[in-house]
Every structure is written in C-alpha cells, then in structure tokens.
Amino acid sequence: MSLSESGGQPVANAPLAPSSGDAGVLVRARGVTKRFGGLVAVNSVDFDIPRGSIVSLIGPNGAGKTTFFNMITGFYTPTSGSIEFDGHPIVMKRRNGMKSLRPHEVAALGIGRTFQNIRLFGTMTALDNVRLGANVHLKSHWWDAALRTPGMLREEAENREASMDLLRLVNLEDRAHAWARSLPYGDQRRLEIARALATRPKLLLLDEPTAGMNASETRDMTSFIRKLRAELGLTVLLIEHDMRVVMGISDRVTVLDYGEVIAEGTPVDVRRNPKVIEAYLGRGAADT
Amino acid sequence: MTTLVVKDQDPYGHGIGGWLSHVGAVIGALPGTYRRELTIHRRRTVLLTVLVILLVTYPILNKLFLAEFSRTTFPLPLPDDTVVTFMMIFGIMAIGLNIVAGFAGLLDLGYVAFYALGAYTAAFLASPHWDSVSIVFLANVAPGFPGIHLPFWIIVPIAILVAGTFGALLGAPTLRLRGDYLAIVTLGFGEIVPVVFRNLADVTFNFSLGPISINAQHLNLTGGSLGINPIDAPYLPFTNLVFNASSGYAPVYLGMFLLVIAILFARNLERSRIGRAWMAIREDELAAEMMGVNTIRTKLLAFALGASFAGVAGSLQASYLGATTSDFFTFSTSILVLIMVILGGIGNIWGVLLGAIALTYVDKTFLPYIGQQVQQIAPSFPNPAQFNFLLFGLILVAMMRFRPEGFLPNRQRAAELAAHTQADVEAKVDEIVAVDAEAEVEASIAEDPGIGLDNLGPPPGQAEASGDARAPETIDEEREL
Amino acid sequence: MDQVIQTFIIGLSNGLIFALVALGYTLVYGIIELINFAHGDLFMTGSMMAFFLISVTFKLTPATEPVTMIAVILLVIAAVMVATAAINVAIERVAYRPLRNAPKLAPLISAIGMSFVLQNIANLLAGPANKSIDNLFPTTNLLSAFGITTIAVNFQQAFVAVVTIPLLIALTWFVDKTRQGRAMRATAQDPDTAGLMGVDVNRTIALTFLIGGALAGAAGVVQILFNNVTVYNLGFRFGLNAFTSAVLGGIGNLRGAVVGALVLGQINAFSDRYISANWTNAIVFAVLIGVLVFKPTGLLGQQLADRA
Fold it and tell me: pTM of the predicted model, to two decimals?
C-alpha cells in the first residue's frame, strides 16, 4: 500500500489565496517564551515559516518542540512574545496578561495538525473522523440538522464526497466504514493526516509522522508529505526524530535545545553546525 | 483542483418550498426506506414495527380484550391510560437527557429543573393564576375568564424556548468544569428551581429609586407549595377534543405525536455534523477542539437542546394533569430519567425509549400492583411501591458494575465503556471490530439477508455490535427515517 | 448583637458536625476522585442507629444517672462508628472498587444508586416519620456560671465540641504522622506509583473508607444528641452541606474541609435565622455552584497529598 501510488487524481483542498500580511511568510513568531512555573520550556524563540516550504523543528527530547507546536495551535498561551499566522495574530497581549486564540479558532484560520500519540476518534468510522475535520467549514445549523433541510443534506453529501476523496488520497477508501481504532498503525497515521487535511489547512503541523514506522513505510510517508506540498500547495511544519526524513524533505531546519534556537538553516548547514552536532546529532543520530 | 472543497455557495437557496418538497420526497421514499431497512436489519426492523404497532393500537387492544383478559383470566398488570401517557412524557425526557448524557457525555443530575420550567410555563400561561388580567386566545375557556389562557400549541414552543434558555444560562458558566463537578452543579440547579417555585408565593418588596417606586404586597408569583391549578387541558382547536387525565386514551396519542417528533429531532441531530461533534467531544475533547470543533459551544448546544425536550415533557405533564406543584420535581425524578437512559442503553435512542417505557411501567403499574397483592396477603409487610427507589438504586449500582452500556446499547458507547472496564480490551474490541468489518463486507454483497451474522445468534453483546455493523452503509443514507 | 452571637454559636455547632461528614467526602475524593454521594446517607444511617441504641436498646432518659449516661453515650459512639465504618468499607468493595478503572462518572452514578439504597433501607426499617428522642442533657446555660445570661451555650453545644474536636485532631495527626497516613497521601498523589513503591493501594483505599465511615458514624450520633431528631432522608441535606464544605475548603484538603464546614455552619445558621429556613438549601446550593464555577480549587486549595 504505497502512498505514492495513491492515484493521480487532482486532489483539491486548494489553499485559499494568500491573504494580507507578509506574502512570503506564513507563520511569524517573535520572542516566544513559555514558562511552566519556574521552568522555561521555550525561551525567546524567533521563528518564521515561509509559505509553501517544509520546515522541520528538531532537537533532543524536552527541547521544547512540542511546547512550541502547542503554542501555535492555541493549546498553550505563551508567557510572552507574539505569533502571527497568515497576518492574523494568534496571541494577543491583554491588560491581564497574554491571551491566545482557542484551538478551534486557530484550526479555523487554517492550521491542521496530527498528534505524536495518535488521537483519532477511535469508535467513529474512518470516514466520520475525516468528516469531523471538515466541521469547521460546514455552515448548517442545528435547526437545519434537526429538520434535515435540503441545504443541510446537500452540504452533508458534499462533505461526505470530499471526505471520501481525502480517504482516497491516503489510500483508505476501502476502510471508510471501519472504526478508526481497528485500523493498523500506519493507516491510523495516514487517517490522522486525512482528518487534518479536511480542516483545509494552509499550514499542516505533523508531530513525528513517521514515529514507529519501518523504513519502507517511512519512505512512503516522506514522499506523501512532498506530494501534499506539491499538489495542495501546503506549508508543512514537521517535528521529527528520524534524521533521514528531516534531511530528506526539509527546506529549512530549526534546532531547539533547552528551549532556545541553537541553529537554523538548510539541512546541509544545520548538519555541519558544530553546536548541533554537540547538542543533538552527537547523541545517537550519528548514522545520518 | 477543487473537487474536495465543499462548495462555498450558500446552501440555503431553497426556502420553505424546497423544504416542503423535500418532506414530500421523504414521505414518498418511506416504503422504499422501510424495505431497505428490512433487508439490512431484518430483526431490528421487525421488532421495531411490532413495537410501534403495539403502541399505536394498545388503547384499542386494551379496551377490546386486554383489560377483560387481565381481570378475569390472567392477572397481568396492564398500564392504564395515565401510565401510558406518562410513558410518552418520560420517553420525551429520556430522549432529551440522552442528548446531553448519551451523545455529548455530560452528566446532568438536575434535569428535572427543565421539566419543572416546562410545567410552570404551562401553568403560568394557561390557568387562572394571574387573575388580575384576562387574556384568552384560542383557548378552551370563555372570553373574559380571569387569567392568561393560551392554547397548548403555543405553550409548547414557549416551554421549549424557556427550558432551552435556562439550559444555556446554566451551561454557559459551568460547561468548562470537569464531568463530576458539572454533575453536582446541575444537581444544585435541579434543587434550586423547585425551591424557587415553592417559595415565591408571598413576595413583599418595596423598591424606590427617585421617581420609580415599586411596591408589592404579598404577591403570589408561583402558587407556593400548593402549586397552580387548574391548568387548561390541551385541546384541538375547532374541535371539542380535549386531552386531559379524564379523557381516556386521547392524551396517549398527543404524547405519542410529541414523542415521535422528539425521536425524529434527536435522530436527525445525531446524524449531522453536530452529532459527530458531540461524539468526538465525548471521545477526546482536546482532539476535537484541535480539529476545529468549538467544544464549549457544542456542549452548550447539547445542554440547551436536551433541556428543551424536558420543557416539552413538562408542559405536557402539567397540561395533562391540570395541576402542578413543586413537589413533582425532586432529585429522584432526575435520577429516574437517568436510570431510564442507562438501563436502555446510553447513547441509543431506541434503547432509552425502551428504558423509559419499561421503567415507567415498573414504577407506575407493576410495583403498585405487586404492592396491592402483598397488602392483601400480608398487610403489615412494607409496600414495594413505596420503596421503588430501593430497587432503582440497586439497578444503578448493578448496571454500573455489570452492564454499563445498557440493555440495548449504542455500540460506540459499549466499546468506550468496555475499554475502561476490562484490561485486555483492545484485543477484544479489535475482535468485535473484525467481526464488524466482515459483517460490513457481507452486508454489501449479501443478496440474501438471511445469511447475516444476525441470524447466527452470536452472544448478546456482539449481536448488537454486529447488528449495527452494517449501519455505516445506511447511516449516511440521507433519507433514512 | 447578642442575637448575632447566639446565631454564631448555633452555626459553630452545626459546622462541627458538618466537618466530621465533610472529612469523609474530602478523604475519599482526595484518594480516588470520587464524589461519594452515599456519604451523607451513611451519616443518616449512623444517626438512625444511634436513635435505636439510645431510645430502644438502652432507654436513656434525661433522668438517667450522669455516669451511666456518659458511659452509654461513649459506647454508642464507638458501636456506631464501627458499624458505619464497616458499611462504608463494604460499599466500597461492592459498588466502587469494581469500577476503579471505569470512566469517572460510573462510580459517581453507582454512588448515587447507593445513596438511594441506604435511604430506602432506613425508610423500610424505621419508617418515613421523624424519629425523635428527649434531650438528654441539662438545659442549664453554661455561661451563667460566668454571669452571662443574654447568650446561651448549653450542654448539647458543648458536647458537640467535646466529641468532634478531638476526632478532628486525631484524624489530622493520623494522616500527617503515621505510616498509614503517609500511604494515604502517596496514594492520593499517584496511585500507580504508590503501588509500585509497595503501598497496598486497595488496602489504603479501604482504610480511607473506613475512616470516613467512622467519622460519619460519630457525626450521626452527635447529630441526634444535638438536634434530638433524625429522619431517613436527612442525609441528602447534610450530605449537601458537607460536600459543599469540602468543595469550599478545597476538596481533598483536610483542613480546608474543616474551615469550609465552619463557614457552612454559619451560612446555615444565619440563613435560618435572618432569611428563612425555606431558602437555606437553595443558598447552600448557590454557594456550591458559585465556588465550583469561580474558584473550583476552594479557599485553601486542593490536594490531600500536598497539604493534609
């Protein structure tokens, strides 16, 4: 079940036209700091994600990658700093401290994500998982649902079609009616991506998408991510431990250690950076 | 490049005309839907049909021979018209609570508050209570009669609105709380509402601020512990058909009518984007929020919609009985409805309906009957009808321990609950799901429905699971009942 | 002013009884995060037992010799504590332990069921009517010895303090200083780790229910000697007040529960006196909702583990 075979049908989800703001930069983070009590998890990080790029965030365990991720998605509110997405501020300064958009608002702006430990809705079908992802774009109200108005039925039918298309994209169309938790691990990973795509994101955040995969699955996933960018014009932010993946597909790599950016640049630059080798590559990823 | 995008055009171009033609199409498609249901879920459909026919014809059957039969031949305690009407009332409540507790997974222990709000809405708007005014509109009383008298058909929507509004008001600050705290807060609300109705019978206050001065002496707002009566009975305008406690089986059909609407609404909600969002929240609230579900709003919707069902039930109950007092609305009523939901199968509309009917029967017909028998034999023995909640308490404890998913479970809920109660569950669930998948394939190719897993008689738990396994094929069919 | 002080004294006695019950809620919640809905009814069961022991078995009257009376009351307290502790442990075993890994709301629902069971058993055995005893204590005002006559502290109120305060101190000592107490705190913090560290988690939880049950039993005896009346559905109101106390003080926090109970005692007394007894329950519920919504960690913060 190779991802690259998943058919050449034009996959839609066309990202919306770039809106206002800096045309070249989709995410702009400045001086982002997050403290938990006395612990500084992320310290004054500046970070840009250019539109249409694949950017990786790497670093040893506990370096603050996932914390940073969670601040972009509105799950954590930074202690200080600013994050802008596509010209919209995700974090605002208020009189009584910082205020973040709620995660569902961030999702509506166009950020889709997957989780490090897969968090599908296990007892919903694969199809319903994807349909849920599109929830934010559905317009029918509860009274439409209760009365089953023609508009609502049409919207549901379209959503169903679109979701089937996404399942086709990740090669799961024949498992559409199986429970998410009954799917094999690799399928679950891809289903999570399909669900994230259903939110019609401009930016896709992938949290260790190849964790637990073997070499050939990893290869498939890598080419799939590339394909997503090429066909859907997505921007991708990746947290990944597998250096082959990171070096293979990233346009830019940012290295975090102890909550601070210690290096940034092309994969080649980063790989040569002595700080990185010391902090990270030296510790067991030497095989890259 | 655009096939996946849900078209951005406005999906509501059709208006009332479009909706009516849609309703027409649905009705037109019913025989076909039924035939398809029958081929796919033979057992379930047959069972359901029999039940519906029984319910609809029960009054006639009862009159014709059941009553006679139970009196002379076999002492079978049969529910009378009042009990059957209450089955409908509690059915509506159970379906409403199921939206809150079953679909969205929020434990509401004060559901009775909304029942009370519905009842008092009817009492305020269709009784001589406000005797300083006289507003009679399409009601069954003479013009000029003191009090506000609106017809039942206007009161029901108002009761929906009142109960739903209070549901939203209660939910807005509390739905951020964790599940058990929310349960206690709702319990508190359920206790406060009847107390307010009981205590506002003699209100005296003076308020003056500059030129404004309000002076009320011994104002009776709610009838106090006596409650409010008489309340106008529902009646069909332009006929003399009245639906109250002394009009036999007519109110059963009124209740049935409202119940069917309640079932349709709940069913439709379940199979919509809102239903999916509720299930997602129940399963993993955080992931749902991250996927763009406004969890607070969605939970609030469940709360308000669930409350409005109780509003309907309350207004029906008060209008039917012709009286209401705060004593009807106790914590034990909230729990009674909760047991109906749990017993039947939390999350499954047919299950909770069955729970409502069964428990109402036990509570209002069976236990009193047994009590009567016991009293005849041993007058000093305690009357079981007074200790119904001993039985119900035991049912709650036993259900939680041995069958938390209920007797007619929603297969999703069953799996969620099983996942928690057993250690080696995942394997087990996978097994069931594997059966599901097989069943699914079979269903799609099966010409002869007789070969389905249904008929092989698997153990009950799996039977439900596999029985429903074919559902995904049909769940998404848009015009199913 | 005297009236206010008098109300305060009534509130104080109420509060001390609430405290004994509230500790049961807070202990159990601190350990297994369960709102033990049946706890108030266990308290009622205790007061029912005390009623039968005092008025039927031992037939105490105000005329009974003081020495006999004190001995019998101590005996009744001990017997009821043992009985309610045993019932509580049995309930845990039957209704909650099998649900240890179930979704959190399942044990709560089971506890609600248990509450109805206890209530109806009491109703079945004792009947629905109020059960009252004579006031066993002399009605002299203890303060008259100091020349104060406008404010009264009677023997009943002193009795409440004499029984409850040592129990509260003993409990705090137990949880703070003993090995078993440490095991309880460890389990409260993290049952899995505590289990790995050699704490017998099941036993510790059973011990928690045992202590909570014993305190509820003592509270039941004190209650009937103080108010001279009990009834099968008394547990709901008391349970509500005690649970609100626990939440107000920060559920899981022992000292918080006592502080919360003392506050709730005053709220009850002042509401009864200056508003109307009809509204007291609604006011207590309003306090409960207010605390849960605006300060769910309570006045003194949560965590049996941290602060107990």
Answer: 0.85
